[in-house]
Write a structure and sequence with these properties.
alpha+beta, Aspartate Aminotransferase, domain 1, 3-stranded antiparallel β-sheet, 3 strands, 11% strand, globular
Length: 75
């Protein structure tokens, strides 16, 4: 599943999440969606997620991504 985020560049956002953002020592990782499209230019603001976590961990990951988007767009 992919989902669009209100960010300018998903790969830049992912690097921000991994290098600059955390909440209580936690962050979230995801796959940038452009690599899943055959058409160049698609997915630039989309991430791919897989439901492999427990429901509680998935909720926390979504919460972290939401907070990360706010922090990323504020910088």
């Amino acid at each position: 599943m992919t989902c669009k985020l209100p960010v300018d560049d998903i790969e830049s956002f992912l690097m921000f999440m991994l290098k600059e953002f955390d909440d209580n020592g936690e962050t979230a990782m995801f796959a940038p969606a452009p690599g899943f499209y055959a058409t160049k230019g698609l997915g630039g603001n989309e991430m791919r997620i897989a439901y492999v976590l427990s429901p509680d961990k998935m909720r926390r990951a979504c919460e972290l991504i939401k907070m990360g988007v706010a922090a990323y767009n504020a910088k």
